Amino acid sequence: MADQLLSRLSAKAQLALLYEVSLSPKPGLVDRINNGSHSDMDFYTFMASTASLSPFFADYLILGATHNGSLPELFQKVRTCGQLAEYEMLQGTHGVNTHKGANFSFALLLGALGYWSQTGDLEKFSKKNTTEVFSLIKDMTVDLVMNDFKNIKEKKELSYGEKLFLNYGFTGIRGEASSGYPTLENILLPFWRKEKNNYPDLESLFLAGLLLLMGHTEDGNLIHRGGIESFKQVKKEAQEMFNSHFSPEELKEKMADYDQLLIKRHLSPGGAADLLALGIFIMLLEGEIN
Questions:
Q1: Range 254-270 burial, b when 16+ CB lie within 10 A, else e
Q2: pTM of the shown model
């Protein structure tokens, strides 16, 4: 992969993360206006986190572009690199977990994209190619859920993701990845491609996309903070708001009100935010936005 193309793709990934955190108002999430439901992080924490992760975007792409083994082997490579990136992220944020989920997904997506580039032309990337890359991710992570959750009942100490799987059968971002990111493929991206010209600016388009994701994402962040009933309530409320078809101006007002409500409830849809950043990157890649 040519250095210029590598730099351009890495810059798009960085831009996607910057677009996501800058999007305002985001219900319960850190944005330009406030810290949402978070007391340990702010807008600048996310700037530091993005700066720490950015050098690894090229690494993920190179791992895919130079890989000649199986796709599960590629997954292990990018996961190992992703763990190094996570360490640097935590160094940059003084231990605050800002982008753990997003880093996991960008490692997968960029690794798969690099692998796809061995036979595909990244200069002419299309919707069809996005589907092909999602299929590669599905093959990369075919055993992810089974391997990560095996022998879970025998463990004495469980991570939060393991507890969600054991108690509710929720697979979270692992399940999303091993299914080829269907929430992006079948819900967010079709909506954005079809409706992008009906919104006056990217912020309004992204806010509508976030609301759509909040109504469809299996969001472990919400369950962690408020339990299963709070998760279901936010999902229902988001769907109702999205289906109200607010004008862009009304949408921003409603999202500001909903932000205050989720702050009072101490809830944060971080899983939806991670998917939003991933979706933004794909729209940049396809040339649908810039």
A1: bbeebbeebbebebbbb
A2: 0.95
